[in-house]
Design a protein that fits this description.
Blueprint: H1 18-27, E1 37-42, E2 49-56, E3 65-71, H2 81-96, E4 101-107, H3 111-119, E5 123-134, E6 137-147, H4 148-152
Parallel strand pairs: 3-4
Antiparallel strand pairs: 1-2, 2-3, 4-6, 5-6
Bound molecules: coenzyme A.
Length: 154
């Protein structure tokens, strides 16, 4: 039986249980366009894995990566892990690739997700109508982005 506390509330970043989440870390495709988890977020006290971040080529023509992130253990949310993990992932990409832009998309009702992005100075660049399908329905998504220059000047 799936643990509802482990189900991610938004979009396609779904894991039915902690075990499914951990297995996913090992089995996901490493293709640049896939949601392969690139970094594991661990708990400060005991290094237990509690979340993941990743990035993917979101568009066949446009340059840049979109970031994704999840603190999969709900008891560890709201403690700053997500913000720190996304900042480290963005630092990594701006230091190790030539892209000028990083982006992220989130359901318009996913307040923690877009507050995280805004606290890191990502700008809301638009709204994609009916772009996500989850929980049996279509939902709008916000598009966020930050340039290399803005990241440096934060
Ligand atoms: C989105 C997510 C990664 C945020 O990570 P987190 O470690 O919980 O967030 P942080 O503690 O770093 O806080 C990030 C911001 O969200 C705010 N926030 C956190 N939990 C919140 C909540 N339940 N309601 C409203 N705001 C919240 C924080 O106050 C902070 O904003 P601030 O800097 O303006 O104060 C996490 O909630 C999560 O994994 N959610 C489920 C998966 C998901 O939605 N992933 C993103 C898909 S786009």
């Amino acid at each position: 039986m799936s643990d509802p506390n482990m189900a991610f509330p938004w979009d396609t970043f779904a894991a039915e249980s902690y075990r499914v989440f951990e297995e996913g870390l090992h089995t996901a495709s490493r293709e640049e366009t896939s949601l392969y988890p690139r970094f594991v977020v661990t708990r400060r006290e005991d290094a237990r894995p509690i979340g993941v971040t990743g990035y993917y080529r979101a568009h066949p023509v446009l340059e840049g990566y979109d970031l994704w992130y999840a603190i999969c253990d709900p008891t560890e949310r709201g403690k700053g892990y997500g913000t720190e993990a996304v900042a480290i992932t963005a630092d990594y990409l701006f230091s190790n690739t030539h892209v000028e832009r990083l982006g992220a998309v989130c359901d318009i009702k996913n307040v923690p997700s877009y507050r995280l992005l805004e606290s890191l100075h990502f700008r809301r660049e638009g709204r994609l109508r009916r772009a996500l399908f989850h929980h049996g329905g279509w939902h709008d998504a916000f598009v966020y982005g930050i340039t290399r220059e803005d990241w440096k000047g934060r």
